[in-house]
Amino acid sequence: MDFAVTTALPADWRTGRFVGRVDRGDGPCVILIRDGRAIDITHAYPTVSAFAAAGAPDCDGEDLGALDALGLSVTAIPRLLSPIDLQCVKASGVTFAVSAIERVIEERARGDAGKAAKVRGRLEERIGGSIRSVVPGSGDAAALKQALIDDGMWSQYLEVAIGPDAEIFTKSPVLSTIGWGAEIGVRSDSTWNNPEPEVVLLVAPDGRALGATLGNDVNLRDFEGRSALLLGKAKDNNASCSLGPFIRLFDGDFTMDDVRAAELDLEITGAEDGYRLTGHSSMREISRDPDDLVRQSLSEHHYPDGFVLFLGTLFAPTQDRDEPGRGFTHKIGDRVSIATPRLGTLVNRVVTSKQAAPWTMGIGALITNLAGRGLLGRAE
After folding, report:
1. pLDDT value at residue 379
2. What GO biological process term is on the record, naming one (predicted)?
3. CB neighbours (10 Å) of residue 155?
4. Beta carbons of 298 and 312 less than 8 angstroms apart
5. For position 69, which CATH number holds?
6. Are residues 259 and 128 in the same domain?
7. DSSP per-residue codes, 46-58
8. Are residues 135 and 214 in the same domain?
9. What is the dihedral of CA 140, 145, 151, 157, to 10 degrees?
10. Looking at the structure, do residues 71 and 208 belong to the same domain, yes or no?
11. How far is CA 8 from CA 2, 125, 185, 212, 278, in A?
12. Does residue 309 fall inside a structural domain?
């Protein structure tokens, strides 16, 4: 899936600042994009986490020329990588009303897509309007909770949807994420799964959100539906988390308000069956503010290398793909495209986690690589 990198960037990319990673042949390099030019800042900041810890400064480095002339690829050198490295990969779940309803459906249907339609109709009739209007943690939320308990319809998912505490979990290990154009994986034994298009924040060790990118928090609905205790197996698999193409850094023209107003479009195209699904997720409908989700992620813990935070999704596909009532699930070869005007487009092709390229560069391998290139201890 080679490409001209500018086709994946927002229309105003020449006026924004972005950070990401590229393999130039000897290992990961940190690339700052400024005024339309690619600048290798690895000798000053050998990791994106070090760059973020310094506050994402407007620094200088080796000028590689105009970004659109760099010839970036996903299969050959110079090769585009995931834009993060040593950050913890955190995610917030059930931050939209629709996703709350769908999680309860998974739970009630015990991961059986065939039972989901009946549960969906009854649940939406009872709480559809209420859950969209209630403020999490408020008195109205407590009253709705009690009403649902009385009706025998309460769920652990509704607790994190309207209760005071957000669901925050670890999506995948440090250095395990994939970038634009890479093959994204679902478990080979999953029969009900879907993409989750999300905005992802880059957060410094001190808790400051420095920028945003696009992400796909692939979810196995059959596993999580059988038991919430299977969340780790549903979420954390080889090649199951993609980010990119680059992180757009906050500045005077791009702020958290742009994140709050983001409109995400999703398109899934089947490689063999001609299937096409489109979806839309509006950050305006999120029930918890991004700054609050960052605060709850920090909790009482310290992240010395910072973290990235998936903000959740409104998208929960119910359109049938094969048998009526079975809903949507991925097939091998699906092309998944997630786009929003201020961040660009993230594209990946679906394979099984067994088929996806094995994850080989962990923390130890990265340290060895940086040491061999004489880069350790060089961060400002």
Report:
1. 46
2. small molecule metabolic process
3. 20
4. no
5. 3.90.850.10
6. no
7. SSHHHHHHTT---
8. no
9. 130
10. yes
11. 11, 40, 21, 15, 18
12. yes
| Residue that terminates a domain, selected from 145, 162, 179 | 162
The answer to whether residues 235 and 336 belong to one domain is: yes
Residue 79 tokens, joined: 């090769």
Contact 267, 216 (CB under 8 A): no
Task: Give the C-alpha separation, 288 to 195, whole Å.
Answer: 21
DSSP readout, 250-274? P-SSS-HHHHHT-EEEEEEE-SSS-
169 DSSP β-pair partners: 91
- 119 inside domain: yes
- Asked whether residue 183 falls in the same domain as residue 60, the answer is yes
What global pTM score does this model have? Answer: 0.91
Same domain, 238 and 303: yes
Evaluate whether 220 touches 103 at the Cβ level (below 8 Å). Answer: no
Over its length of 380 residues, how does the chain's per-residue pLDDT go in tens digits?
A: 555 677 899 999 999 999 999 999 999 999 999 999 999 999 999 999 999 999 999 999 999 999 999 988 888 899 999 999 999 999 998 887 666 777 777 677 766 767 777 776 766 666 666 666 778 888 887 877 787 777 677 788 788 888 889 999 999 999 999 999 999 999 999 998 999 999 999 999 999 999 999 999 999 989 988 888 899 999 999 999 999 999 999 999 999 999 999 999 999 999 989 899 999 989 998 989 999 999 999 988 789 999 999 999 888 777 888 878 778 999 999 999 999 999 999 999 999 999 999 999 999 999 999 999 999 975 44
Pair type for strands 344-352 and 183-186: parallel
The tally of domains found in the chain comes to 2
Q: Which domain holds residue 113?
A: 97-162
Tokens standing for residue 105? 């459906």
In the chain, which ranges are continuous DSSP H helix? 48-53, 97-109, 113-133, 139-150, 156-162, 221-226, 231-235, 256-260, 290-298, 363-372
Q: Does a structural domain hold residue 377?
A: no
Assess if residue 3 is contained within a domain: no
Q: What is the pLDDT of residue 130?
A: 63
Q: How many CA atoms lie within 13 A of 283 on its CB side?
A: 21
Task: Using alpha carbons, select from 272, 308, 317, 268 the residue that is nearest to residue 290.
Answer: 308
Tell me: do 314 and 214 sit in the same domain.
Answer: yes
Domain shared by 71 and 178, yes or no: yes
The label of the residue with tokens 């391998």 reads 365
